[in-house]
Design brief:
Helices cover 30% and strands 32% of the residues. By secondary structure, it is of the alpha+beta class. It has a single domain, classed as 3-Layer(aba) Sandwich (Aminopeptidase). Strands 1-2-3-4-5-6-8-7 form an eight-stranded mixed sheet, sandwiched between helices. Strand 5, helix 4 and strand 6 form a beta-alpha-beta unit. The longest helix has 17 residues. It is globular and about 45 Å long.
């Protein structure tokens, strides 16, 4: 893959950008301190702003690496920070990136996450040269699977007790799209 790092991207309604230290309060208020948002994630809600600032500091340091991808999702209309989308795992041997995301409850079921994921899919295939983009979710969180389907990923099956989150050990519903599917069989 030809890594570009976390570059600014846009959709019709969103700006996907790097996080800054000034984002801590919005992150904490809009999603990081909400147990409904973190229910199926691998991290606990942040109890204090210091925790959010610590996480942000780690992320900002990560931006120095060209293969580090983590975007803040910001509404164009209001400038409000509503969530994040990132590469949580990658494999250079098969040119694969695994995408994870989370969004504040106030913006659930409005299509923002699908819109962001669609843009990330095009970025990784068209600009980075990925061959496979994948994601997964706990089957008890079916709306996450709907996001993946809307972004063009295909359901590949469920791995039993293959993952964990704040609910404990769980199944993993797996989704992916390949470059040849994205490009319709045409050469890149």
């Amino acid at each position: 893959m030809n890594h570009k790092g976390t570059v600014r991207l846009e959709t019709d309604r969103l700006i996907l950008r790097r996080f800054t230290t000034e984002d801590a309060e919005a992150m904490l208020a809009n999603w990081c301190n909400d147990s409904d948002v973190t229910k199926f994630l691998m991290w606990q809600p942040h109890g204090k702003i210091e925790e959010t600032r610590r996480v942000l500091a780690e992320w900002i340091t990560g931006y120095e690496k060209p293969n580090f991808y983590l975007w803040a999702m910001q509404l164009k209309e209001t400038g409000e920070l509503i969530g994040c989308i990132s590469v949580v795992k990658q494999d250079e041997c098969v040119d694969m990136v695994h995408i994870g995301y989370c969004i504040g409850k106030q913006w659930w079921r409005k299509g923002y996450t699908s819109e962001a994921l669609l843009r990330i899919v095009s970025f990784f295939f068209e600009e980075v040269g990925a061959n496979r983009i994948e994601s997964r979710h706990d089957p008890r969180n079916p709306n996450s699977g709907k996001v993946m389907l809307k972004a063009g990923l295909h359901y590949e099956g469920t791995s039993r007790e293959a993952d964990w989150n704040n609910q404990g050990r769980c199944d993993a519903a797996n989704y992916a799209i390949l470059a040849k599917d994205y490009f319709g069989g045409k050469e890149r």
